[in-house]
Each structure stands twice: as C-alpha cells, then as structure tokens.
Amino acid sequence: MGSSNRCTGWKMSLQRVIDDEQPNKKQQTSGGAAGGNAEVKGSVGGEALPAVATYVENSARPPPTGSFVSGGFDMALMRILDEPQKHEKSIVMQDAKCLVIYDAYPKARYHLLVLPKEKVMSISDLRLHHLPLIQHMHRVALHVIAAIRGAGVVGQQGVEGHRPLAFRIGYHCVPSLKLLHLHIVSADFVSTCLKHKKHWNSFQPPFFLDSKLVEQTISDTGKVEVDKHKSEALLKAPLTSHRTSETIKNIPRLKEHLIKCSAPVSSGVVY
Fold first, then answer.
1. DSSP string over 150-189
2. Which of 5, 6, 59, 177 is least enclosed, having the fewest CB within 10 Å?
3. What does the buried/exposed string (b/e) look like for 141-178 if buried means 16 or more CB atoms within 10 Å of the residue's CB?
4. How many Cβ atoms sit within 10 Å of the Cβ of residue 205?
5. Taking the model in full, what pTM does it have?
6. Residue in 99, 114, 135 with CA at minimum distance from that of residue 217
C-alpha cells in the first residue's frame, strides 16, 4: 500500500505493507494497478463455507422499513443479530461465527456487511484474541466475492472490459452503526444511495481501513486506536477519483466520472 493508505486519524503508524498472508501476495492483474495496488484474486482455503445466496440487485430490493431504524439507527445491526429470523431476506450467508447481509443503503452495485455473531461493538474493541474472528470474517468476504464473480458478473456497468469486478474489503475507522461490521463493496460505487461527500470519502482510504491492515495492526499491537476527531475530518476532504486521483467538483460530476472512467483503481487495496 502506498502513502495514500496512511491514516492520519490513527495514533499509530499504519504504513507497513500487508503481505504476510494470501491472498495479498504475488498479485497481478491485466495491466496491473497504479501505485502498486493490485486487484486481489485470492484463495478462500480452509474448511468449506456455506453457499452464498444469489445477490438480488439493489433496485429489486425493497427499501428499509421503519422497523430498521426504530429503537435507534445505530442499533440496527444489533437487532438483526439478535433476531435473524425476522430478517431472512436480508441474509445472504451465515455460519457458526458470522452472517452476511445486504447493506440497507448500498453505496455501490454490490454492497454487503459481514457481522460477527460475537458481540464486538467496534474496531476499537478488537483485541488480540479477536484475531481469528476477523481473519474468518475476511475469508467469508472473499468467499462472497468469489460467489458473485462465479455468477458470471464481470466488469462494472460494462466499463471495465474483461477485468474481474474489483471490491474493497474493510472497516470505517469511525463507524456509524454499533456492532463490528466488515464492508464488502464493489469498486464501481454506482448507486443512488451515494449522495454526499461523506458517503464517498467513507469508502476511500485513509478513512476506509483495509481488512488485512486491521488484522496486521491487531497482530502487532493488540488493538486499534483511532483519533475520532481527526478521522471524522477526513470525511470533509475534497472528492478525489479512486481511479485517476483527480479532484472532482461535486457528486453529480463524480457520478458521471464513475460511469465513464475505465482506468483501474489506483488508491487503496482492492480484491
């Protein structure tokens, strides 16, 4: 990862390259990715994982009902975890350790969340003993991506030619919802729910923390420390293309750019 992944809101240095585990080593793409950031095609080795339900397109899913926010928006994920039987249409996969749900307000063509069944409230609560859990969550994320690609999905709205659809896997350094959740989000970022600067910046480094970077930080230091004030300031940064690094005037111009630009992702880590 290049210097664009240095999170100024963190109290520790996170400039190390995460290359100690597959699938983040020896990665190549057709044409590669600028800045040394490759699109990962990793193994999802280990014990077999459950099948992933076919992804229902965002436009075909009903919007969240009032029950989603009743009792507080920030507790919505906790309610799903406590009563999954009431949210079966939102769940695409689950095993003994976690479940995968649609993001209720998707910021891309494909956007899901991996929730641990252990009630860890945020990345700030992670400790060394949680390392196997977040490693499993990452493996589940790769499994879901493989299922989406296996369904024959290639490219982003047709603009990426024959390159596999790229994804980000990671955490917001200051999440808006309680309960740890790992984002799986396609790098097209084509969505009617992407409306504001903060929506865009929250899925770009350094506010968006790559999953393997968080794993390595927990492994090295036993915890993740976030300066909330500095991190939240990152959401107000200028709109910058994750493909060309150019500054873009506003959200409507950004959306035009996202549809038209066929350059590979050049910032952060993609899988």
1. HTT--SSTTTTTTSPPPEEEEEESS-SSSS--EEEEETT-
2. 59
3. bbbbbbbbeeeebeebeebbeebbbbbbbbbbbbbebb
4. 26
5. 0.82
6. 135
Question: Could you tell me the two tokens for 232?
Answer: 């939240």
171 touches 211 (CB < 8 A)? yes
Question: Phi and psi (nearest 5°) for 20?
Answer: -90, -10
For residue 50, is the peptide bond before it cis, meaning its omega torsion is within 30 degrees of 0?
Answer: no
Catalytic annotation on 181?
yes
pLDDT of 145-186, one tens digit each? 999 998 875 444 433 455 678 999 999 999 999 999 999 999
| Tens digit of each residue's pLDDT (9 = 90 or more) over 218-245 | 999 999 999 999 999 999 999 999 999 9
Handedness of CA 168, 122, 141, 219 (dihedral sign): positive
Per the CB < 8 A criterion, the answer to whether 267 and 201 are in contact is no
DSSP-assigned beta bridge partners for residue 183? 113, 170
Q: Which of 136, 138, 143, 181 is catalytic?
A: 181
